[in-house]
Write a structure and sequence with these properties.
By secondary structure, the chain is α/β, with parallel strands linked by helices. It has helices spanning 20-29, 52-69, 94-97, 116-127, 136-152, 169-179, 194-201, 223-232, 249-254; strands at 5-6, 34-40, 74-82, 102-106, 157-158, 182-186, 207-210. It has a 7-stranded parallel sheet with strand order 1-2-3-4-5-6-7, with helices on one face. β2, α2 (52-69) and β3 form a beta-alpha-beta unit. The two termini are 23 Å apart. 46% of the residues are buried. Bound molecules: zinc ion (2 copies).
Length: 258
C-alpha cells in the first residue's frame, strides 16, 4: 500500500465521464482502501454540477457500489463546493453539510455568486489571472475570502490552492492548520512554487494528494505529482493519505457517526 485513498474524483454526475462503479473498480485495482466521489456542487452550471436531486440519485448508485464491492473498499459521497461570497459563503447549506461525508471547497470559474457585488469581486479577476496579474489588494481580498470559508464551514479539503484564484498561500495554510482543513496537492492543478510549498509546510498545515480524476483511469495517478514533490524536497510520507488512513478532523465535527 502506498496511497490509502483518493478523496477527490468526479463522475458523469458533473463534468467527469465515468460511472460511480467504474471509479470504484479502478480504485480497487490500484490498491486503494478508500475512495471519495466528489462531483461539483450545487451552484455551478458550467460544470454540469450535481443538483440537490441528483445528489440523492448518486447516493443510490454509491449504495449499490458498496454492496458490489463487498467490503474491498470504503466509498464516501462528497461534494466539491464553490466559493460564492466574499464572506466565505459556499454553495452548500447547513443541512446539506450533514449529508456529505467529504467536503471539498475551491474556486471554480463563474459559479452563481451570492450577490452581484460578490460575483464582480470574486470571478473576473480570477478568470483573467493568467493574463493580468492580480493586484495585491485582490490577493488580500481573496485570502480573506478563503479564510472566512475555512472558519465558517467544516471543510475537509481545500482544493487546488492558488489555481486562478490567487491567495497568500501561507496565510491560508495557517488557517488550515488552525482549523484542521487539509491542503490538497492536486495532480492536475498545482500552482505552487517550491518555496511557497516549503513555507506552507512550516505553518503546521497538513497536505493530502488528490487526483481530481474526471475519468476512472486517472484515479490515484500521482506520477507527475510525485516528481513535483521530489523536486520540491517535499517528503511524501508527510501526506495524510500516504501509507495511512487520513483522519479528517473536521468531518468528525460535521458528522456524528465519524
Ligand atoms: Zn476543482
Ligand atoms: Zn475536482
Amino acid at each position: 500500500m502506498n496511497y490509502y485513498g483518493d478523496y477527490h474524483t468526479h463522475t458523469h454526475y458533473s463534468d467527469g465521464v465515468s460511472k460511480v462503479w467504474e471509479n470504484v473498480l479502478s480504485a480497487i485495482d490500484k490498491g486503494l482502501k478508500e475512495l471519495a466521489i466528489t462531483d461539483h456542487g450545487f451552484n455551478n452550471p458550467k460544470y454540469g454540477a450535481l443538483t440537490r436531486e441528483t445528489f440523492y440519485l448518486q447516493r443510490e448508485e454509491i449504495e449499490e457500489a458498496r454492496k458490489k464491492a463487498q467490503g474491498k473498499i470504503q466509498i464516501y459521497q462528497g461534494v466539491e463546493a464553490d466559493i460564492i461570497g466574499l464572506d466565505g459563503t459556499i454553495d452548500v447549506n447547513q443541512d446539506e453539510l450533514e449529508e456529505m461525508q467529504i467536503l471539498i471547497m475551491g474556486y471554480h470559474s463563474f459559479s452563481e455568486a451570492k450577490s452581484k457585488k460578490d460575483w464582480f469581486k470574486i470571478f473576473p479577476s480570477a478568470y483573467l489571472s493568467f493574463l493580468i496579474k492580480p493586484s495585491k489588494a485582490t490577493i488580500r481580498r481573496n485570502t480573506r475570502t478563503f479564510i472566512n470559508a475555512i472558519k465558517k464551514y467544516p471543510i475537509d479539503i481545500l482544493a487546488h490552492i492558488n489555481h486562478l484564484f490567487k491567495v497568500d498561500c501561507v496565510e491560508v495554510a495557517k488557517a488550515c492548520a488552525d482549523y484542521g482543513t487539509y491542503i490538497e496537492l492536486n495532480a492536475k492543478h498545482l500552482n505552487l512554487s517550491f518555496q511557497t510549498l516549503y513555507e506552507m509546510s512550516l505553518t503546521g498545515a497538513e497536505f493530502i494528494a488528490s487526483s481530481d480524476a474526471h475519468h476512472f483511469s486517472r484515479i490515484a495517478e500521482f506520477s507527475k505529482l510525485e516528481e513535483f514533490m521530489k523536486k520540491a524536497g517535499f517528503d511524501k510520507t508527510k501526506l495524510v493519505n500516504y501509507n495511512k488512513k487520513p483522519e479528517f478532523p473536521r468531518r468528525k465535527i460535521r458528522l456524528k457517526e465519524f
